[in-house]
């Protein structure tokens, strides 16, 4: 499917959605526009899986949930994106709740489990340490 066609379709769908939403909730989107600050009470950290969009599964309105999503709803201290979302949510938006939400059948979690390597057996580690001690690579500081 040509990229321009996809973009045109998505923009048309968005326009239709906004018109329908305005009929059901007159003035809501204008009140939540960029002119007014957002005031969500929840930071939601969830999976990128297209089957679990937080606003759909939680039946939330625009502006109610501040979101960070990635594969398998990870939160890592070396992830600048996740850290900036958390800092903004807590310090600026002053959210009341932080939810880390997993979901059934997460492909990201399953892939992590499938590709994880168990640590070597303890006796193998001890054998390596014994060799290192014999070779003088490990020494103890006994004062
Ligand atoms: Zn997932």
From TrEMBL:
Superkingdom assignment: Eukaryota
SUPFAM superfamilies named among the record's database cross-references: beta-carbonic anhydrase, cab
Record organism: Trametes pubescens
Enzyme class: lyase
Residues that hold Zn(2+) according to the record: 47, 49, 103, 106
Cofactor note: Binds 1 zinc ion per subunit.
Name of the protein: Carbonic anhydrase
Keyword set, alphabetical order: Lyase, Metal-binding, Zinc
